Amino acid sequence: MFGTLFYFFISTFYYTNQQKYLVLLQIGVVTILIPIAFFYFLRSYDKADNVMVPDLTQRKIPLIFHGMIIYLLLSNTIKENILPELYYFLLGGFISTIILFVLVFLKIKASIHMVGISTLTVFVSALSLHFEVNVIYGIAVLVGLNGLVATSRLESKAHTNREILIGFFIGFIPQLVLTYFWL
Known about the structure:
Layout: H1 2-10, H2 17-44, H3 60-77, H4 84-105, H5 112-131, H6 136-155, H7 161-178
Helix pairs in contact: 1-5, 2-3, 3-4, 4-5, 4-7, 5-6, 5-7
């Protein structure tokens, strides 16, 4: 959702307010409302202890579900020829989700929070270059948020340094590689 908001804020393309609201509504429903409902469904069947899903084995179902909803967005809502930047942003998120899913089977835990914030940081930085818009303060805030998220995950003892770094690079690298296709 934040990536889409940043996209519409930074983009120099003209979109009517109705177009923006429609895309934001679709992404909001699919990435916020449906996952919240799905979490409560999992919780009612004792498949998720809490929203942080600290148990590695409990991450499989949410990651599969997350991959499916991103796939639905990519195949039905965000088209490469209409919104290429958003398409590749979501594709990077999809690839990161697949990597996280594979790591669960290898019994390697990664910080999903770091995946999200590092992905957003690369995307906003690339948007700034692509549209030649100076959003250096926004990028600086996002870099700071990377540090705050990492610190909070370490302080809450939810992750180790290694898990934080793995999460950071799982978000950073696919997004950086995919910028080649639209930047």
